[in-house]
């Protein structure tokens, strides 16, 4: 992080708290009250340019100190033996990392996989993502997320018709971080029914960003394409199985004339010397931001820990059994929307720093503004052949 960014700890911890909310969450959220503590890289509320370290404590760890001890334990001691027996896992959960992880690392205890594979680690992502959101805000980039679907129930809200401040306001007091007040009760009732049935649900999150510079990412190398980076980041969140940029899924079944976003000369309200009437591309073309609103959807499968359990196998016998159950959520899509927003903020911040650099926020903001100004003025520049033949007037301004 560049030096000179004012850090709002209240905002970081508010995002941490939102990650623990949402209708359908499990008992753990009543045990932990997550807050982040900064250990380095910030002095008197301002970043110094040094690496920032954050600590998020697990308050429940005292109940696991023998089971998850780093050092060897005496398994003959009564307290140790009791805790080990109580926390033992002897059945795989289909859909989780249990089976593949246990076989991959040749573990003798499924818990070695369960604990690390847990979405508990997303608390750290949200803390870092909150820092990234603050950097983006300084550059006048807005970002928001909302739940658009729970199970089979979809919202009717058109996010294209809302600015991101409105979207944030609509979701702020929602138990599902959903902008559709009319549909939310049906979503909650559906979650309740599945909880009563011992089942679980997934859903869909949409993350949006406005004010991004053109050209974040690159078309020149496959691993620098921004849409690929966003997809990887969101697919890395536990239980997410698909990512869509813009209208990507629908576009696959349409002719090009109904998919590509036509260009028109800009008007007085345009940021750049062009405008568009559609945004099917979701703000990314050729692996780069194109000046339109970034629109990403992420699809979460139902959680694999079900109270009613699925047919499974015992471990280490590999005999027919019922899947293990450990405290879990019925539906975590609301919390996942906060994690997804954090991951998008992280990827965008990294892309901005890669493109514009700068050791301080002043340097970074100046570079971003200069680039945006140049893009806005591009229609008035007379060029004979691209960047190599830029006019003397532009060269003089840059000097």
Could you characterize the architecture of this molecule?
- The chain is α+β, with helices and mostly antiparallel strands and 399 residues long.
- It folds into two domains: 9-57 and 119-246 and 281-356, 4-Layer Sandwich (Chorismate synthase, AroC fold); 361-398, no CATH class.
- The protein has helices spanning 9-19, 28-31, 78-86, 98-104, 111-117, 122-138, 164-172, 184-196, 226-235, 248-251, 333-356, 361-376, 392-398, and strands at 36-40, 42-43, 46-47, 53-56, 142-150, 153-154, 203-210, 240-245, 264-265, 274-275, 284-285, 288-289, 294-300, 311-313, 320-322.
- The longest helix has 24 residues, at 333-356.
Map the helices and strands.
Elements: H1 9-19, H2 28-31, E1 36-40, E2 42-43, E3 46-47, E4 53-56, H3 78-86, H4 98-104, H5 111-117, H6 122-138, E5 142-150, E6 153-154, H7 164-172, H8 184-196, E7 203-210, H9 226-235, E8 240-245, H10 248-251, E9 264-265, E10 274-275, E11 284-285, E12 288-289, E13 294-300, E14 311-313, E15 320-322, H11 333-356, H12 361-376, H13 392-398
């Amino acid at each position: 992080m560049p030096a000179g960014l004012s850090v709002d700890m209240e905002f970081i911890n508010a995002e941490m708290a939102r990650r623990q909310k949402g209708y359908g969450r499990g008992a753990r959220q009543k045990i932990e009250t997550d807050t982040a503590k900064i250990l380095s890289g910030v002095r008197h509320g301002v970043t110094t340019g040094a690496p920032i370290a954050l600590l998020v404590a697990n308050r429940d760890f005292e109940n696991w100190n023998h089971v998850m001890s780093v050092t060897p334990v005496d398994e003959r001691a009564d307290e140790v033996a009791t805790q080990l027996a109580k926390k033992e896992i002897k059945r795989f959960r289909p859909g989780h990392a249990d089976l593949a992880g246990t076989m991959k690392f040749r573990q003798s205890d499924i818990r070695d996989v369960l604990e690390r594979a847990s979405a508990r680690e997303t608390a750290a992502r949200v803390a870092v993502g909150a820092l990234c959101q603050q950097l983006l805000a300084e550059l006048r980039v807005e970002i928001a997320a909302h739940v658009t679907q729970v199970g089979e129930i979809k919202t009717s809200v058109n996010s294209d018709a809302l600015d991101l401040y409105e979207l944030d306001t609509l979701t702020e007091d929602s138990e599902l971080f959903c902008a559709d007040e009319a549909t939310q009760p049906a979503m909650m009732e559906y979650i309740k029914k599945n909880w009563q049935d011992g089942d679980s649900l997934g859903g869909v999150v949409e993350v949006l960003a406005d004010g991004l510079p053109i050209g974040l990412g690159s078309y020149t190398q496959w691993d620098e394409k921004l849409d690929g980076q966003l997809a990887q980041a969101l697919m890395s969140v536990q239980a997410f199985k698909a990512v869509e940029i813009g209208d990507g899924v629908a576009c696959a079944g349409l002719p090009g004339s109904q998919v590509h976003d036509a260009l028109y000369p800009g008007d007085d309200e345009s940021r750049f010397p062009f405008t568009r009437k559609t945004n099917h591309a979701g703000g990314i073309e050729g692996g780069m931001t194109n000046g339109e609103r970034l629109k990403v959807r992420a699809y979460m499968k139902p959680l694999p820990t079900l109270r009613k359990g699925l047919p499974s196998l015992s471990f280490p016998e590999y005999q027919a059994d019922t899947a293990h159950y450990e405290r879990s959520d019925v539906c975590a899509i609301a919390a996942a929307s906060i994690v997804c927003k954090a991951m998008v903020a992280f990827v965008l911040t990294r892309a901005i720093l890669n493109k514009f650099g700068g050791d301080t926020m002043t340097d970074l903001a100046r570079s971003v503004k200069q680039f945006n100004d140049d893009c806005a003025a591009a229609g008035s520049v007379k060029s004979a052949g691209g960047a190599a033949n830029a006019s003397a007037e532009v060269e003089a301004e840059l000097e």
